[in-house]
Amino acid sequence: MSHVIQPVGPSPLKARLLLIVEDEPQISRAVRNALNDGADRIIEAANGRSGIDQAAAEQPDLVVLDLGLPDLPGIEVCREIRRWAEMPIVVLSARHSEHEKVQLLNAGADDYVTKPFSTLEFAARIQAHLRRSLSHRGETSPILEATGGLTLDFARRSVSRRGIPVRLTPTEWEILQALARQSNRTLTHQQIFDRVWGKNAGNPQQYLRVHITNLRRKIEEDPARPQFVVTDPGVGYRFELPE
Amino acid sequence: MPGWSVIRAWVLWVVVLLAVTVVMHSAREDMEQAHVVLVYLLVVLGGSVSGGRSLGLAIACAGFILIDYYFQPPYDTLSVGKPLDWLVLLAFLATAAVTTQLLTLARTEAAEAKRRAQEIGSLARLGSEALNAGPAEEALAKIAQVIRTTLGVEECEIHRWDGSQVVPGTSHRSSGDGAEPSIVDVSNAVTLTAQSAGPEDQPGAPTPGEVDPRKLDLVRVTHDGASSVLVPLTVHSRTVGVLRLTDSAPISVDAEKRRFLAALAYYAALGVERVALVAEAEHAEALREADRLRDVLIASLSHDLRTPLTAIKAAAQQQKGHSEGAEIIVQQADVLSRLVGDLLDWSRIKAGAFPLSLELNTADDLLGAVTRQFSDRATLKIDIDWNQPALVGRFDFLQALRILTNLVENALRYSPLECAVELGVRRERDALLFTVSDRGPGVALAERERIFEPFYRPVAAIPDAARAGLGLSIARQLAEIQGGALTFSVRPDGGSVFTLRLPAADVSATLGEASL
């Protein structure tokens, strides 16, 4: 599987293998057309079981998974693949349900795209996931420089804006760190909660949004139009970094 | 229980008395007075045994007179010769009376014991029927049958009381099984009984008005020649139903029978309660099933509509640049998708099936999410006091976002381009007030409430096929199901202000933390 270990070069999106798990031929064709330019090879599975089998056999670089499969609930397929593989899983759903989105992200999906989707935006998101998953194979850097002069120093647990230290509470720091370590990826409220307070904590989860608000007031240029800590309504939050 | 057997006993023992008298009279010269008295005592005993106390006492009195008249000198007169003869006569009378009394007592006690045994037998049978029968209705029918046969009445009906009215239950008649419950009769009977009906017997005087079985103890009704007894059925002092016994002959309810009836009624009440519980469980199950079906339907409907829309949109996007219509197709696919979503949501709110997650949220977060939806519109101005601690409320973030997005979209559509739409928030007592203010044409007085009605389009509305006229209606309902409100007011110096009111919450600003 040379394409997996191929070093990230000037054309990092070539020699990529994508798996599309989709039972509707029209959607499958639309997805394939949208992704043709970004992948060398696209394989397809028409149901959940063969999707899991193909993912195991071919080790694709990314999986596009439709939720309305005839044999298995999409979330089961997602969970199963996530048990042994780390490639990005992008879910396609016909339901505009944040609850479903939360469940899928908690089950290990990386992104969630609702139908009808814009093919351009869809392709862009797939490319971003591919790029990130391949460049993040190494260690994350101890210092993160965001736009607008925001700097996070993970080793010193400190934040500064334009060189001026920002005073955060321990909880605010933990939240910021959890989000920034997986920048551009939405973490559900539950995921943030587990990372910051631990699975056995009481129920300070309800205060998460208040902490986020206080955090934004400290690090955002204009807290009414947040640029770093962005709300994914009904789902969670993500730390946005220009790619 | 006067009947043929009693009359027969009287006739028989009067004849015996006369025969004994005739026989002894013919031999009175050879007989001693003690023998005569003994023979008469035997007759008294016999009469008491077969005819009861009254026959015994009657024979005793007759014997007293016959002994005096025929067998005590001077013969054939009622006068008594020697004082010792008085002693004989009085001893006879006393002995006869006492034995008669004792015999009667023993007989009554034996009858009572037999009745108790029967009652216990019936209750045991009732208990086992109630426990053994499978479905709850079947058990209730069995109970009705046992009660009817035990009490020997023509019909026994058991009906449920659901708190406001009698629900038809089961009925058992002597003429055969499976008779239709005559609920009309019961309702009539219940109606006929007086509101304040106590344990006293009631003539069937019609009293208008519904009767609440809770007020009944035990009511007797006679109407249309039939006699009925109504017994309320209670479990844990809660009335669950009514038991009705009907017979063409008057049904007597003495203290004993009342006690027994209470025991029977308890079993009937348990049976009724069981039927009610089973019905309730089935109802809940049916509701769950209906909920599930509706969810499946909504999900599949939205899936079925969105899948072709996705294909249409994807196909059109490929044609972009080649064809002028492609862009329109893409836009209209979005419009259609949104309409589908609005219609589905509206029907779910209507059906009371809209899922809400009321959580602690901040006004900052909500307004931030709103502005993000209009990121390329510089004409949106945010009014938050950053010097104050964050405002916190308890509401559904998504739905609040949806309401505000809808209001801002409307405001942007109607507002002149050079005027910013203002989005503000403040706390007022127990509420957060989010305001969306524009400098548009405002809303005519007559339409200020109607704009919140579903499918209503204001006369001056900008023609727009993309909207079903549901936006403000959905927005207001979404506000209300969260315990909030959505109102319109006129903006000073022109324009409109829409105010979304949501419940506020109090949270300590520091959340108990110090800075790093």
Task: List key phrases describing it.
heterodimer, A: 243 residues, alpha/beta, Rossmann fold, Arc Repressor Mutant, subunit A, 2 domains, five-stranded parallel sheet, four-stranded antiparallel sheet, 9 helices, 12 strands, 40% helix, elongated, B: 516 residues, alpha+beta, Beta-Lactamase, Heat Shock Protein 90, 3 domains, five-stranded antiparallel sheet, five-stranded mixed sheet, 10 helices, 52% helix, 16% strand
What is the compact description of this entry?
The complex is a heterodimer of chains A (243) and B (516). Chain A is of the alpha/beta class.
Largest sheet of chain B: 5 strands, antiparallel
Biggest sheet record of chain A: 5 strands, parallel
Query: Taking strands numbered 1, 2, ... along the chain, how are they ordered across the largest sheet of chain B?
Result: 2-1-5-4-3
Total strand segments of chain A? 12
Q: Architecture of the largest domain in chain A in CATH? A: 3-Layer(aba) Sandwich
